[in-house]
Design brief:
Blueprint (H helix, E strand, L loop, with lengths): L9 E4 L1 H14 L5 E5 L1 H5 L3 H10 L4 E4 L2 H9 L6 E3 L8 H6 L3 E4 L2 H13 L4 E6 L12 H13 L4 E7 L11 H14 L8 E5 L1 H6 L7 E4 L23 E6 L2 E5 L4 E2 L5 E2 L4 E6 L15 E4 L2 E6 L7 E5 L8 E8 L2 E3 L1 H8 L3 H7 L6 E3 L1
Parallel strand pairs: 1-20, 2-3, 2-9, 3-4, 4-5, 5-6, 6-7, 7-8, 8-9
Antiparallel strand pairs: 1-10, 10-18, 11-14, 12-13, 14-17, 15-16, 16-17, 18-19
Helix pairs in contact: 1-3, 10-11
Length: 371
C-alpha cells in the first residue's frame, strides 16, 4: 500500500516506551526466565522491525510472530535471535521454516509425519513447540494419548524434528474470576507430564498472565499487548505496573468553514447543525483504520474535545469546532493534547471493541514516525 508521507496524518511511536515496558517486565522475571517480544501483525500496528529492534535493545531474548513471512522479515532485518511462529502452518512449508531457522507451533501428528519426510529429503531439521489446547479451543493437542504419540514420533525422528518447547494459551488470564484460568493451568500440568524429557522452553504466560498471575509456571513470557503500554484486560482490571502507551495518532485541520443553521454534514445527511457552527475537516478515514462507527466520538484540538459530526468518510471526517481555527492546527485522535488525553481504550469503548483491534486497524497508509 502507498504510505501517505505528503499528508500530515501520522502514528507517532515512542520506542522509549517500548523499551521501558520490556525492561519493566524483565525486572519482574525470576531467575532462568526469558522474554519473547510478540511482534506479529506489524507489532500490533506499531511497526514490526523498529519495535523488534527496540525490544531487543531492552533485553528481549526472542520474538513471536503469527505467520512465516513475518519471521522471514525479521531474519532479513538482521535479527538472529529465536523466532517462534505461533500460528498454524502447512507441513509443506517445513523446509522453508527450517532454512530460516524459525521455530513452529505444532498441534497435530499429521503435520509431524508429513514434515519429517520433507525435512529428511532436504537434510534439514525443524524446531518444534508443541501446542497444547487446555481450553482455548484454537490449536493444539487436547489429550495425553495424542500428545504421547506425537512425542514418541519426534523422539524417533530427532534428526529432523527438534522439540524446543511446549506451550499453551490462556483465554481468561485477564478476567477477575480465576476459575477457568486455574482449570487451564491444571490441564497444562497434566499434559506436560507426558513429556519424559522437558524441552528448553515451557511457556504459558502471555501479558495478562505475567501481570496478574505472577506465580505462573514455565520459563518464558510471551510479552504482547503490555509491551505496547496497554492493559490486556481493557479496563476490567486495574494495571499494577507503570506501563507507558507507545502510540499516539495525530492529524490536522485541512479545511475550516462556518455553516449556517440547518446545514447537513457528510454522507447520508446524518448530522444537521442546529445553529451557526464552525466545521473542520480532518484527513483520515476508515481506509486508514479510523472506523466509520466513530461518528459521534471526539478528538482533541487545542485541548478541547471536539465531536465527530456526520459519517466518517473513507479518507476524511468532519468535526464541530468551538471556534475558528487555523489550517494545520493539530488534531489528536489518540494521545495527549494540551493536558487532555484520549486513550486507545477510550476509542475501543466507543467502538464496542478492544484496543488490540483499534491498533491493528491502523493501515499502512498512515506513516509511523519513531521517537
Amino acid at each position: 500500500m502507498v504510505i501517505g508521507r505528503h499528508r500530515n496524518t501520522r502514528a507517532i511511536i515512542s520506542l522509549e516506551a517500548i523499551k521501558h515496558n520490556v525492561a519493566t517486565q524483565i525486572s519482574k522475571l525470576k531467575d532462568g526466565q526469558s522474554l519473547f517480544a510478540v511482534v506479529k501483525a506489524n507489532a500490533y500496528g506499531h511497526g514490526m522491525i523498529p519495535v523488534a529492534k527496540a525490544a531487543k535493545e531492552a533485553g528481549a531474548n526472542g520474538f513471536c510472530v503469527a505467520i512465516i513471512d513475518e519471521g522471514i522479515a525479521l531474519r532479513e532485518s538482521g535479527i538472529k535471535d529465536p523466532i517462534l511462529i505461533l500460528g498454524v502452518n502447512p507441513a509443506s512449508e517445513a523446509v522453508c521454516m527450517a532454512k530460516h531457522d524459525l521455530s513452529v507451533a505444532v498441534g497435530t501428528l499429521e503435520f509431524l509425519t508429513e514434515a519429517q519426510k520433507l525435512l529428511q529429503e532436504e537434510k534439514q531439521s525443524l524446531k518444534i513447540h508443541l501446542a497444547l489446547d487446555t481450553g482455548m479451543g484454537r490449536i493444539g493437542f487436547r489429550n495425553t494419548e495424542d500428545l504421547k504419540e506425537a512425542v514418541d514420533f519426534i523422539e524417533k525422528h530427532s534428526d529432523q524434528l527438534k522439540c524446543e518447547g511446549v506451550f499453551t494459551h490462556f483465554s481468561t488470564a485477564d478476567s477477575k474470576d480465576p476459575a477457568y484460568f486455574e482449570k487451564q493451568s491444571q490441564k497444562f500440568d497434566e499434559l506436560v507430564g507426558v513429556l519424559k524429557k522437558k524441552p528448553k522452553y515451557i511457556h504459558q504466560a502471555n501479558s495478562a498472565t505475567a501481570l496478574w498471575h505472577p506465580n505462573f509456571e514455565g520459563n518464558l513470557v510471551r510479552m504482547g499487548i503490555s509491551m505496547y503500554g496497554l492493559n490486556p484486560s481493557g479496563d476490567v482490571i486495574d494495571e499494577t505496573w507503570n506501563l507507558e502507551p507507545a502510540l499516539s495518532l495525530e492529524s490536522e485541520l485541512v479545511a475550516v468553514k462556518e455553516v449556517e443553521a440547518g446545514s447537513s454534514i457528510g454522507y447520508g445527511a446524518t448530522y444537521t447543525s442546529s445553529q451557526s457552527e464552525w466545521i473542520g475537516t480532518v484527513p483520515i478515514g476508515y481506509a486508514d483504520g479510523w472506523l466509520r462507527r466513530m461518528q459521534g466520538f471526539k478528538v482533541l484540538i487545542d485541548g478541547q474535545y471536539c465531536e465527530i459530526v456526520g459519517r466518517v468518510c473513507m479518507d476524511q471526517f468532519m468535526v464541530r469546532l468551538p471556534k475558528k481555527y487555523d489550517l494545520g492546527t493539530k488534531v489528536t485522535l489518540i494521545g495527549e493534547n494540551n493536558g487532555k488525553v484520549i486513550t486507545a481504550q477510550d476509542v475501543a469503548n466507543y467502538a464496542d471493541t478492544i484496543h488490540y483491534e483499534i491498533m491493528c486497524n491502523i493501515t499502512e497508509r498512515v506513516p509511523r514516525i519513531y521517537k
